[in-house]
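Hey team,

Filing this mostly as a record. A colleague (T.K.) asked me to run one chain through the structure pipeline before their review meeting, and I want the input and output archived in the tracker in case anyone asks later how it was produced. No errors, nothing strange. Just documentation.

Input sequence:
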Amino acid sequence: MAAIPQPTNTTAAAVVAWRERTTDMGHRTHLGASVIGHPCDRHLWYLFRWCASEQFSGRMLRLFDHGKREEARVIEELRGIGCEVWADDGTGQYRVSAVAGFFGGSVDGVVLGLPEAPKTPHVIEIKTHSDKLFAELVKKGVREAKPMHWVQMQTYMHLMGLDRALYYAVNKNTDALHIERVEYDKAEGVRIVARAEKIIRATEPPLGISTDPAWFECKFCRYHEVCHGGAVPEVNCRTCVHSTPDLAREKWTCRGLVTLPESHQRTGCNDHLFIPPLLSAHGPPWTPTTRA
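Output structure:
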């Protein structure tokens, strides 16, 4: 007798589909503090230049949202033990920026009155972790276990003029806490902003972390096919040779003359011409893209 097929039209499937349908997975307009600690300059340049989109499943989007919702609870807990917290009550975040606004990020908050240092304001960075990653974090500390998070906090401290950060980590499996105070490293802060500016100013893809497509950090990169496989990047203003981030005017411009609104950057125009190295695997000539 044939097995009864499992229903596909279920509540769980509907929730996942709704999450995928309603979540904005579009490109960020700026190079983010949350990613500037990535080890590959080329990855960051591809990200800033909108070379390829990344699509997430509904399950992953729910997971991201879980981490976001944790922020309000953490802020409540810090206030509950007598701390002052500036964080828009968990409904928003403070933004910091540099490099004419092309680099920056959103700060979870600032806390004052911690039992360990009651008179010192701290940047708050709230993260959730799986049981395995949480155990590694407890063992090694944030700088070694989660270097991108450490760099993110250094960025915020540098741009906000603060010298301490509070890393508030939550184990998603057990709700255990790992809370770590991080000291500001001025030299690191300067280096981070300089790196961001170098990437933003670059007119061509910088050197990547490896030329080997099988390299472990390349294999799972969202830009693997663009970087190693010869895939054609997305068509938009940021992959076009005519487009430039104008630091003096704090705007994207076309041919250095016309200001490009965000909406136009995302669609491009009939004069789109790929930045030549993006099509190096296809050989010359690099002709304008035909658009309907």
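Quick notes for T.K.: The radius of gyration is 22 Å. Residues 58-80 form the longest helix (23 residues).
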